[in-house]
């Protein structure tokens, strides 16, 4: 399969690996948004949140907590933003979680298109409809 993260897992592409075990690999994002921008991936290929099993997801969450402690201790980050893209907006189709350390004065913008927004009541009714 032509998957860049599987190639990283298999050692075919180098990575700045911070941690690994039987289930996950944790490495620096090659295009960091802040210092220490990190990715956690399962070693097994899952495409997205619909695809991945809960045991693996739980393990990823527990490693996330450990990585935040490491990022705080070593880089003195003051916060952590966790992002996980699925389908649209997902560049690499191998499940991954972005751990982006936050620092006073950094800029991590989530821009959005206000024009595309529907009335919140309408959205709520649609979501609650049978
Ligand atoms: P996403 O848009 O959520 O799929 O994010 C994919 C992320 O993978 C981006 O932040 C890329 O910078 C990162 N990325 C792509 N190739 C590599 C690589 N070889 N090593 C580390 N990070 C990578
Ligand atoms: Zn893969």
Structural commentary:
The chain has 130 residues and is α+β, with helices and mostly antiparallel strands. It has a single domain (4-128), classed as HIT family, subunit A. 28% of the residues lie in helices and 19% in strands. The chain contains three helices and five strands. The chain has a five-stranded antiparallel beta sheet, covered by helices on one side. Strand 1 (17-20) and strand 2 (24-28) form a beta hairpin. The radius of gyration is 17 Å and the shape is globular. The mean pLDDT is 97.
- What is the chain-wise order of helices and strands? HEEEHEEH
Number of strands: 5
Strand content: 15-25%
Unreliable spans are none
| CATH-defined topology | HIT family, subunit A
Task: List strands and helices in order, with pairings.
Blueprint: H1 4-9, E1 17-20, E2 24-28, E3 38-42, H2 54-75, E4 79-83, E5 97-102, H3 120-128
Antiparallel strand pairs: 1-2, 2-3, 3-5, 4-5
The chain binds adenosine monophosphate and zinc ion.
Brief characterization of the structure:
This protein has 130 residues and is α+β, with helices and mostly antiparallel strands.
Name some characteristics of this structure.
130 residues, alpha+beta, HIT family, subunit A, 3 helices, 5 strands, binds adenosine monophosphate, binds zinc ion
């Amino acid at each position: 399969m032509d998957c860049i993260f599987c190639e990283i897992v298999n050692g075919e592409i180098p990575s700045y690996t911070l941690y690994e075990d039987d289930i996950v690999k944790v490495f620096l994002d090659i295009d960091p948004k802040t210092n220490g921008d990190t990715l956690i991936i399962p070693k097994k290929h899952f495409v997205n949140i619909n695809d991945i099993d809960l045991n693996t997801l739980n393990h990823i969450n527990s490693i996330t907590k450990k990585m935040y402690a490491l990022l705080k201790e070593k880089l003195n980050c003051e916060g952590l933003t966790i992002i996980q893209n699925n389908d649209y907006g997902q560049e690499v189709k191998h499940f991954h979680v972005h751990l982006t350390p936050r620092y006073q004065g950094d800029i991590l913008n989530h821009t959005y298109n206000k024009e595309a927004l529907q009335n919140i009541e309408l959205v709520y009714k649609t979501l609650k409809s049978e």
